[in-house]
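The following record pairs a protein chain with its ligand, 1PW.
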Amino acid sequence: MDGGAFSLREVLAAFQTCVTEEREVLLGPYLRGWRGLVRFLNGLGAIFSFISKDAVAKIQIMESYCGGERREEYRTLQSMVRYELSGGLVDLQRRSAHPDSGCRTVLRLHRALRWLQLFLEGLRTARQDASTSAICTDSYNASLAAYHPWVVRKAATVAFCALPSRDAFLEVMNVGGPDEAVEMLGDALPHIRDVYGITQELYAQHHLLDLP
Ligand code: 1PW
């Protein structure tokens, strides 16, 4: 995935390898998928680097856990939640002793993944002449926007206006022609939906969906 021609196909494939037979989510491929998404986002223009900056910061936090002393505990989302909750390593009310827990950091990426899922789904099913900005704005408003203050929502909406046309966008994915790109999305999206669904259920089970 690093170096060489960049294709969104490989990025989305990372999410495919996230889920184990026991339906656990592996953090390694999850973060690799995110790294690729960020690269893709940056390829869309400088205006998107402000959006990707926060995602990069969060990916880095998680990578340091995954490469750190307790890396075994951070192998899967499930082991991370178990480890951090049982060790009292998560701020549940307000950010204080553990402002950058893995649980709260992944929650932000998880919410953003929902946006990505809705956006790619919209892109896949839209008419050829549809506006990507509108698809992006609609999917953002239906997901991540609820968690952002006004000024971030405003800046994000301005950035979306710079998105290229649907065909140009599909081309940036570097998967082949528009038809191939649409087919690839059809293959990849169920896996992203799966990862999102497992994470959502895990977080709901442990009452972690509103972590500060
Ligand atoms: C073309 C579609 C691409 C989808 C890629 C998703 C990238 C999402 C990054 C959005 C970031 C907007 C600016 C940052 C806001 C942060 O305050 C917020 N972070 C996220 C990821 O929503 C909350 O993090 P915080 O402040 O609680 O640490």
